[in-house]
Amino acid sequence: MFWNLNYWDKASTLAGEVENPSKTFPKALLGAVVVVVCSYLIPLLAGTGALNSPSSEWTDGYFAEVGMLIGGVWLKWWIQAASAMSNLGLFEAEMSSDAFQLLGMSEMGMLPAIFASRSKYGTPTISILCSATGVIFLSWMSFQEILEFLNFLYAIGMLLEFAAFIKLRIKKPDLHRPYRVPFQTSGAIMICLPPALLLILVMCLASLRTFLVSGVVIIVGLLLYPLLVHAKDHGWAQFDAELPTEAPKNCSDGHSVVSQLHQEVQDESSVSLLSDLPSVKAEQESSTMRPEEAFKLE
Predict the structure, then answer these.
(1) Which of 39, 145, 217, 277 could cysteine-pair with 141, CB 3.0–4.6 Å?
(2) What does the CA dihedral 107, 108, 111, 112 come to, rounded to 10 degrees?
(3) What is the percentage of the chain residues whose pLDDT exceeds 90?
(4) Which GO-annotated molecular functions does the record name (predicted)?
(5) Cα–Cα distance between 83 and 43 in angstroms, integer?
């Protein structure tokens, strides 16, 4: 259930592809919550109310058997087909959000510029291929292990998001925010506490193998950051230094990208939480150097 009901935050990675997301997203999320709750609650109430099956029989695939016992073979096949389409939709949504997250990081100069390349339809081709390739490496694990692994990494990511949210509220209270939690900083912290405790509980329930695999992935991620900084400093790969201000020229009208960011307006997505590091400060100072100062250095 935790895996089926998470990743709501990934919708933000597609905000750049949506016109006026500050008004569109709340309506879409509200409708999605209603649909998701009904799709789980109504069938479960029908299944548990019509049958006296013990909880031990409710294993993977048993819901289709419940449909057959209630409505016949056609309902069993309908549930199985709906489950397959649902998993396909989950895969497409996850791959799309990961791809646009890579694209956004590339446009902000955090990843090589190749990840920001788009096809003539406006889709981030390289980022999609990279996201799909990552799924292949999970094929050696069982489904239960994949769920534990994804839930563990998701919990860590959400804890980092909560920490970043609170830190930006404290250090950057005057930033332009398309979305703002209607509470003071203390209230925002209290809102983050219950889900943070639930995330810690999910991590504590993981198996030893999940801890080991997740630990390796986290270590690789920590090593990638200085490696990318080193590659950027030595010109090993091309990096975009600024956010694009217009949509790609190759995009058709039906797939045009609406830019929600302006260079003169700074928001949370363009603020680095690592701005206190010496390497980042040096890069910021060099980017703001006057032409005459650069001439003197030469």
Answers:
(1) 145
(2) 50
(3) 10
(4) transmembrane transporter activity
(5) 13
> Residues 165, 163, 147, CA angle at the centre, nearest 5°?
105
Residues 58-109: tens digit of each pLDDT:
877 788 888 888 888 999 999 999 988 988 888 888 888 888 888 888 888 8
Residue 196: closest CA among 165, 152, 162, 169: 162
Q: What tokens does 11 get?
A: 């919708």
Supply angle C-alpha 258, 116, 131, rounded to 5. Answer: 105
**CA atoms of 255 and 124, how far apart (whole Å):** 12
Phi, psi of 256 (to 5 degrees): -70, 150
Structure tokens at 124: 């981030």
Handedness of CA 40, 42, 44, 45 (dihedral sign): positive
Structure token pair of residue 2: 């935790």
Structure tokens at 154: 């998701």
Per residue in 224-278, pLDDT tens?
889 988 888 888 888 876 444 444 444 444 343 333 443 334 444 444 444 444 4
Structure tokens at 187: 């209230």
| Structure tokens that stand for 166 in this block | 């609170």
In 3-state terms the chain splits into helix, strand, coil percentages (rounded to 5) of: 70, 0, 30
CA-CA-CA-CA torsion sign (273, 278, 283, 289): positive
